[in-house]
Amino acid sequence: MAQHVTAGVDESAESLAAAHWAAREALRRGAGLRLVHAWHGQPGPGSSVPVDTGRLRAAERALRRSVASVRAAHPGLRVEDVLLPDSPVTVLLAAAEESEVVVLGSRGLGRIAGFVLGSVSQHVVARSPRPVVLVRAGEASAHEHLPALDGVSPDEIPETPYRDVVLGLDTEHPGDELIGFAFESARRRGAGLRVIHALGAVSAYGAYGRSDTARAGEPVAEREHLVVAALRPWCEKFPRVRVTETVTEGRPAAELVHASACASLLVVGRRTRDTRRLGPLIGAVTHAVLHHADCPVAVVPHT
Questions:
Q1: Which residue(s) pair with 68 in the sheet?
Q2: Is the pTM value of this prediction over 0.70?
């Protein structure tokens, strides 16, 4: 079983923020941290083209910077650095096979505007066999916690409570992997878990990876019953996690983005399927959430 968290790093600010978020997650899990950097410039086997030493040195500097920064902030954490000459998507997907979770940086337009999802992140999110967390530049430990009381210094509070973890749930395809990840994330933080099920229709594949155009107008009470039933075994398994269920007639993306403003982590799903014809899909609502959420977003593959 994997015993480390992997973060993909490069020379960007969002990459460094992702590395630090991954370090905190590794500590929460009691795992090690693996920082992975992929670089282009290594010639193919038998090639007479010399190695691009300039790119290699830049890659080494970027990796050293991330490692030094994380070790300075978390001196007791076990940190492993990996530099591989291949495409970022290939390297990160291979690393995901041996990781509990993969953490990537996403370019941000400020805490209000949300994410800009790059091609590497899109491919990794769509194909990773493990949960992928997207973190943007500027994300810090303080953003995961509730604000300190007026007039009280954060240094005077031994452990400032975490903000809630938010889970976007589809009652027809809840997914044990998805719900389990959300409950475990809340448990590790000692945080509450807010579960949101939105009835509003979307135009194509929904947040939960299915055609979702017929749910609008269904009685809220019926969906509330299904949400409670889906969560009941998990509430019994995690009795210390405080759970709040919300069933709304709003549109899924809008409801989840709104909830992310007060969350430490937003958890959404990506259904795995036969991809031979359509290719890997993220889902329209999950895609929207990744672009606009105001906190780190975990995308969990599930059946």
A1: none
A2: yes
